[in-house]
Each structure stands twice: as structure tokens, then as C-alpha cells.
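Please supply some protein, with C-alpha cells.
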Amino acid sequence: MAEPIKKKPTYKALIFDLDDTLFDTTRYCLKPALQSAFDVMIKAGLNATIEACFEERTRFHAANPRGDFFASLLETFGTREGARSSRAEILDAGKNAFYVRNVEKNIFVFAHVKET
């Protein structure tokens, strides 16, 4: 028996909101992505805490907003003694957790965005 044909999703619009003017990307997208990245990096062997990673991200981003932050985490904190993952594996784990994400099905914009 043949598998049913899956209907491709249709989109009405694609909107880039990089500065939180339409919806709260920092709270709903950035912070969860960073949390996931820090968590997997620490589990893989990064010698840091979640809190220290968030503090370092704030400091690093202010000084170098286009730099490779995840590589900087490894340079700043190093790896735990006996870590089973290599530095490259820790870096890849963090970047994958940050960039490969499921997007919420429904994103709600700030009040009055549609009218504006």
C-alpha cells in the first residue's frame, strides 16, 4: 500500500523580527535556545554553570556582537577534567541546540501590531 502524500505547509507570510518590535523574540526564542545550548554544552563537558554562561553571553555580546560566542565559551571556561566529549563536539552540540529548533506553531504578536 502506498503512503499517503503529505501536504506541504503553506505560508501566508514570512516575517523577520530581530529587534522585538513585533513579538518578544528574546523571551520566546533567544532565551530558550541559549538555555538548551548551555545545557548540552555543560553536559558534554563545558566547565561552567548555566548562570555563568548567561553572564558571559551578556558580556561577550556587548563587546563583540558578531563574534563566535560558543567558541568563546570554550575559551573562557574550558572543559571539565575527564570530559568525554572533545572541544569540537561540545561546540557542535551547543550550536546545534541553539540553531536547530522547533518553532512554535502559533506566535502571538504584541498588541496593536496588526493595526500598525
Remarks:
- Residues 25-44 form the longest helix (20 residues).
- The mean pLDDT is 87.
- Helices lie at 25-44, 50-63, 69-77, 87-99.
- Residues 46 and 79 are 5 Å apart (CA to CA).
